[in-house]
Amino acid sequence: MSGAASPTEDGARRFMRRYPEEGDGPIPVERYTSQAYFDREKDAVFRRKWLNVGHMLQVAKPGDYIVVDLKIAETAILVIHGKDGAIRAFHNMCSHRGAPVAWDAQGSCRGFLSCRFHGWVYDTSGKLVHVSDAENFPSVDPAANGLSAVHCAVWQGFIFINLAKEPEESLEDHLAPVADHIGRYDFEGFTPAFSYRIDENVNWKTLQEAQLEGWHLPYLHEKTLARAVKVEGRQYRHSAIELHGLHGVLGSPPPDSFTPPPTAMLASRFGTGTVQAFGSKADKGDEGYQFRGSFDFWHIFPNFFVGLLDGLFFTFNIWPVAVDRSIWEIRGYYPPVKTAGELFAREYSKVGLRDPMMEDCFTHELIAAQLKSGAKPVIHFQDEEMLVRHLGNGVDRCVRGLA
Amino acid sequence: MQSSLPDGFADLERWIDWALPTEYQRNRKRWSASMAESQAFYDVMQARCGDALSYLDQTPLTELDERQQALLNMCLSLTEVAVTVEMYGEPSPKYVFPIDRFVPLHDAWPLGASGPVTGSAR
Predict the structure, then answer these.
(1) Cis omega (within 30 of 0) for bond into A335
(2) Which of B8, B3, B10, B28 is nearest to B18 (CA)?
(3) What pLDDT does A307 receive?
(4) Ordered DSSP codes for A303-362
(5) Do the chains contact at A344 and B86, CB–CB below 8 Å?
(6) Which of A111, A134, A349, B37 shows a CA-CA span of 20 to 30 A to A213?
(7) Best interface-test mutation with A: which of B31, B63, B97 has the largest number of A CBs within 10 A?
């Protein structure tokens, strides 16, 4: 299902009327608090679906690698840029006794990784090329003891893995509902500019939910972001909510009038950032990316976000650790800065994105703690929270074997 | 005594403890400053930050010397204190995660790490 939402569409429940299959009823709290439900999510979602683990810019050169901790699957994944140019993923585990072969979250090798425990060596294609003290391992066939591979594919620079023995669909198929939309964005010319890691006592869906609706902006972010979005009365109305398969997008309407604070004006004299990104809806022409608002938030099921703005983009990866604990990884990509003034503008823009997310985090933990009380069996989502509902529905369909 | 800042910016010397090299440190400074101190630093940087950036922009970012970097770091602290003054109206807002839990990992970014804003203070 897709279709552009018109912000002028009259009447209430515009998204519920467009997406009746999503329902409009209350949501069981059990989905956020039940260990049994969480265990089912593990198998039905995280061991089956394609998962973003990073971007090519993190492993730009042959020999570069990252290690992604996937507690949800009780493994750590080594993603490595091969000497042959291919991107591969492996369980980060030596075939000898199970020690990690890469010990840092990010690094670069000259073509080989050697286990720090006893020195077995693997090349960048995962092949075991050296067994220390080989004559004392009569039963070890190096050809059968390479690193254990994990399915890995790259789309528009975004690196995905799939933990299934045989994925049910290709990455291309998984992304098919959104690829033609997001793929129009020009991802060239950006560099990694910042990243954050937040370890929170919250269910992974609650963590995502504040990013799946803008309706809370004038409330929770009254002092920060509210001024950069359009508010009608006190209500925020998305310029678009579109569901695309299990994925979806929010468009955030630019404010009718945006009076940037003095420091934003100063920053805009020296570089691009806040004023340009939030002030208006960019027009990239018929062939270019079609902005739904001044910024668009794409949710890629189950746990990945790409936020598209004019001149910068950022990503979120939300990793469940336990039913009540999750890791939020945030990465921002900006054009490279060459001057102090550009760096200042970028820093100002970054802080402006960061502080509202710090506000989000504070609520996550309070909500998660209180949901455990069992005092309420359900929570509620309104029409503007359609994408929140869509995530929960998608997960629930997976858990029930329907998606 | 030689100034810690480039010639022409000696008037900012009394604010030198805001010249901090990492986001983590600048944010901590913002949260620990009093409102009066925040407002005073904000006011002086509103007046001087534009001059400072125009001056620094004459030199490529990667070639700034130590005193120029100190001046840049002071400018970057304005991005933090601006939130205190322009948005919250208080240095340590109540319902916000602290930077100790919202951990900047910019070290891990080879390109993001060029220039002086490197490092988290974990």
Answers:
(1) no
(2) B28
(3) 96
(4) TEEEEEETTEEEEEEEEEEETTEEEEEEEEEEPPP-SHHHHHHHHHHHHHHHHHHHHHHH
(5) no
(6) A349
(7) B97
What is the C-alpha separation between B61 and B21, in angstroms, rounded?
Answer: 14
State how far the Cα of A336 lies from the Cα of A227, in Å rounded to an integer.
27
* Residues from chain B contacting residue A362 (CB–CB below 8 Å): 95-97
Which domains does chain A possess?
Answer: 14-48+178-399 (3.90.380.10), 51-162 (2.102.10.10)
Burial of residue A338 (CB within 10 Å: 0-12, 13-18, 19+) is: middle
Residues contacting residue A400 through CB under 8 Å, at least 6 positions apart: none
Phi/psi for A179 (5° steps) reads: -60, -40
Name the token pair of A259: 């009076």
Interchain proximity A198–B82, CB inside 8 Å: no
- CB of B119 within 8 Å of a chain A CB? The answer is no
Task: Let me know: does B30 contact B81? Beta carbons within 8 Å.
Answer: yes
pLDDT of residue A356: 94
Chain A, chain B: beta-carbon pairs less than 8 Å apart: 130
On whether any CB of chain A is under 8 Å from the CB of B5, the answer is no
A8: confidence class by pLDDT, cuts 50, 70, 90: very low
For residue B63, the distance in angstroms to the closest alpha carbon of chain A comes to: 10
Residue A263, phi then psi, degrees to nearest 5 = -70, -30
From the list A192, A266, A357, which residue is nearest B49 (CB)? A266
Q: How many CB atoms lie within 10 A of CB B100?
A: 12
Q: What is the pLDDT of residues A111-125, one digit of tens each?
A: 999 999 999 999 999
CA distance A369 to A230: 32
Q: In what order do the strands lie in the sheet with A121-123?
A: A112-114, A121-123, A128-130
ipTM: 0.91
